[in-house]
Amino acid sequence: MFNKKLKKAVLSASAFTALSAGAAAAQEACNNYTVQDGDTLATIAIAAYGTSNYQPIFNANRNAITNPGSLSPGLVLALPCEDGSLPNGQSAQELIAAEEKRAASVKRSNVYAPPIKLVAGNGWEPFTTESLNGGGIMTRLATTSLQRAGNSRDYSVSFVDDWSSHLDTLLPLGAFDISIAWTVPDCTNRSYEWSEATEARCTQFVASVPVYDIVGGFFTLPESDYAKATDFSDLEGSTICRMSGWSMVVLEEQGLNHNNTTVVQPNSARECLDAVLTGTADVAAFEVDLFASTMKDMGLTSADIVENPYVSTLSSMSFLAHRTNPFAREYIAMMNKGLIEMRESGEWYAIISDTLREQNEKLNAASN
């Protein structure tokens, strides 16, 4: 669905220097690749892009991959091109421009409606940050959804970096209508111990359809016993670093909670990796793309910290409105309509890949 572009790597928010053409010949960016026995998403990403960050490959093949930790030999994966497009079709930028032109031609209602107030936060690159076009992936998806599928709703976006205040204070008090974006648990699953925060997400908020599926990894020292854990139960008794304000839902769903682990919660991914390096934490748990970009920013390699290859999490991010907001369901329904149309048109993936391209260019420029 996208034009074949240059065959050198890179698409990711954190790609390291691409491997030589010879080294990446079997798994080459901007090509289709057939999974071989023993392949993992991380090994494919390293060969094609020179980075273990496999989230972009997962994004491009979401309909084919149900479990990022298990690939079946013979599965054909599309490896994104340097500009974020997929082999054989329009570029991401061309598709976005076409959708914007089409949306601009749709007749808008003359009836005034107040702007929908959206709130995001910095420090979660490339998903929400004021340093990227449109405020990052999640912010762009949120605002674009309000202009698609017949929607023509004005909006405002503010960045409040105290993430916990979004759900605890700002949405309940009506200061904002929608917060971007949050992990939402399976509210029908009571097979694990729910925390108060998990309970609140199921009872106090209205959630959009899943916006983006994030792969989370567990990162340790190479010599740590936890680097060899093959099951989540092997992580019980460990000290896990999970940033302040970040949901514990993905860990709780795997049986890891405050009763069987010690959780430390600094403010940033850098502080979590520092905690692993200094022994303050055994394991850091957060997104694989944020891990790769933070490793690069800190000048670390796999000789310093590694991702456990056996355990990972998959969490769906959604936009949230508080149930006390009289327009909560109306606003979420509008966003759902827009998101569904964007997935069908390809604009959803185009926005994601375009933002990852922009973030990658910034990271490369900073390192040169």
TrEMBL record:
Signal peptide: 1-23
Keyword vocabulary terms for this entry: Signal
Keyword Protein transport applies: no
Coiled-coil parts of chain: none
Gene3D superfamilies: LysM domain (3.10.350.10), Periplasmic binding protein-like II (3.40.190.10)
Top-level taxon of the source organism: Bacteria
Alphabetical list of PROSITE patterns matching this protein: LYSM (PS51782)
Protein name: Amino acid ABC transporter substrate-binding protein, PAAT family
Organism: Ruegeria halocynthiae
